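ok so for the tutorial part 2 we go from a plain amino acid sequence to predicted structure tokens. step 1 is just haveing the sequence, like this:
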Amino acid sequence: MIKAVFDANLLISAFLSRENLSGASSELLRLARQGEIELYLSPEIIGEALGVLVASERLRNRYGYTPAMAIEFCDNLQTAVMMVVNPPATPGAVPRDPDDDKVIGCAVAASVEYIVSRDRDLLSLGRWGEIAIIAPEGLLRVVRAQAQPGRT
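step 2 — the prediction. this is what the tokens look like for a chain of 152 residues:
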């Protein structure tokens, strides 16, 4: 099974595109909920996503959701994924954006294969040890290739 960590931006994208099931972020979250991806998140990653969704009046107006809907989404994530509590600190892991260090810490603690993000600071790293850092479309290709052995 594919083991991955999604960053807060991917969670936000999945929530905002919840009615567009063909979006990469929504599809990945759906695959995780179906058990095709073993998804690991930390309270800090979910908290960052919730903070943005609740605080942004612009997003709420544009995408027509309430803070209560965002809270419910994030609460549901905690029961649908593997939670990594107290991941190790990884200071300096993402030099261009230290706020992203929490994503690396979660991935290290969970021993995942992939960090999935659209964040340029994370993507610019390419890898963290044995962990590949890829865009959502890249993980979709991996999932599809595993679902159809022998096809590339």
